[in-house]
Structure formats: C-alpha cells, structure tokens
C-alpha cells in the first residue's frame, strides 16, 4: 500500500542546509530531494523541453518507483490548444523516454479559457496520444466545477482513455486574506477552484496549496486525510503534492502529510530516510 508525496520542485534556495546538504552540485540535488519525497511535479517542462541527457541524469538520481508528473509544453496546451503541435509533442516524448516507469503521468494543464465547449478537442487529443503513458488533466474553467453537465462531459472524455482529473485544491489558501509577500503574489496568480475529491482511476493525483504558516497548511489538508485513506483502502495508489506560497517548508510538510495518513493506516509503506544534512557553510 503506497502513498507518494512530493513538492512543486526538487530544489529551492531555502532548502539548502535544511533539507538538502549544502553545498551540493546541481546534478545531485534531485537525489537528495528523493530522500525526502517520492514524487515531484515537472513544472519546468511547461516552459522548455529538457534534453535527453538532462532527463537521463534525472533517472540516474531516482529509484524506478519515484514518480515524475510532467507537464506538457506550453506550446501544446496553451499556444496551440492541443491542435497542430505534433512535432513539439514528439520532441517532448522522445526527451522524457529515459525516465521509463518514473514518468508516472503526463500532465495536461489547460488554460482557464478552455471550457466545456472545448472538451471534444481534448478528447481527440487524448485519443491520439501514445498508450504507453498515463495522462492526467487539470482544468480551471469555472463551468467544470459549477455545471454538473460540463463535469460529466469532461469525465466521459477522460474515462474513455483512462486519464485522471487532477484537482488543484486552493480552498484553504483563499479562506482568509494573505499575510506575506509570497501569499499576496499567490493570491493574484493562483486559481480559485472549488474542492474536488473524486478519483477516476487507480492513480489519483492531488495538488494542494496551503499557507506559509505550517500550522494553517496542516489545518487545511485535514479533509484530504480521509480521502487518501479511503482511496488506499480501495486499492488505489495516490500522489499528493503539497504547495505553499513560499514553499520554504514543503518537503517537511509533504512528509508530515504522509505521516498523518500512515498514522491512520499503518499498512502504508514508509518514506525513505533523508540524506543527512551537514552544517551550513558559505564556501
């Protein structure tokens, strides 16, 4: 019984000397992160497709059971809106091939303007994708959350190809006004999407945004504990990504979420032991 947890990135300035050894070469940081978490969001692939050599390094630093949820390039999802980007998609798929089973799901994050009338385009796109990958779709248009018919239409398109609907839970974040610069920045950029906790596949993926105050982040994720325990008991293998506006404590929070689920369900496999972090140095 396995619950994977992770963050939005595998390196962050504030983690050095706290969660990751410091100094540490850039090509070793993913290995150190993988001692804390068992999954990571591949947000950088949205902006640029990495080289195969870079991806080979990612594979070398992680166990085959480690999960990458890799975002499709922006040119495919936002600029071309899933049409006429075959070559960009081919280059991306070729680049990530060295990950093998670590490429847990390819993440189709769609713009907020992509509404229920665009679902046929999404369905065509998904049907044309290689079947040797899993796919996960994140939508932000209000209709998918407010209109039951729109939600059913989307679920039908996803069910037809075994794709998952990825919720981005920002409800705890938007519950009270921001109190830090990072929170104020996130307040203006993050989507205000309602809570959704329905899984379509045996590998659900959740993105959760808390607050910079760890106690408030923990308070906000309480509903997800019951959801995760229920999914695990059903035989599903979920992945939970914990975000905060500054992400300063994200690796520790991700492990804490895993600990809280495991306290309720001891059969869940434990996380790996982090690489020891030595004293911080300026040199």
Strand content: 5-15%
Q: Shape, please?
A: globular
Largest sheet: 9 strands, parallel
Instruction: Please estimate the helix content.
Output: 25-40%
Number of domains in the coordinates? 1
User: How are the strands ordered across the major sheet?
Assistant: 6-5-4-3-2-1-9-8-7
CATH homolog superfamily: Protein of unknown function UPF0759
CATH class: Alpha Beta
* H and E order: EHEHEHHEHEHHEEHEHHEH
Instruction: Give the second-level CATH assignment, the architecture.
Output: Alpha-Beta Barrel
The radius of gyration computed from the alpha-carbon positions, rounded to a whole number of angstroms, is 18 Å
- DSSP strand tally: 9
Mean pLDDT: 95
Which oligomeric form is depicted? single chain
Extract low-pLDDT stretches: none
Task: Determine the number of helices (DSSP H or I, runs of at least 4 residues).
Answer: 11
CATH fold-level topology: TIM Barrel
The N- to C-terminal Cα distance equals 43 Å
Based on secondary structure, the structural category is: alpha/beta
Q: Nutshell version of this structure?
A:
InterPro entries: DUF72, UPF0759_sf. The protein has 283 residues and is an alpha/beta fold.
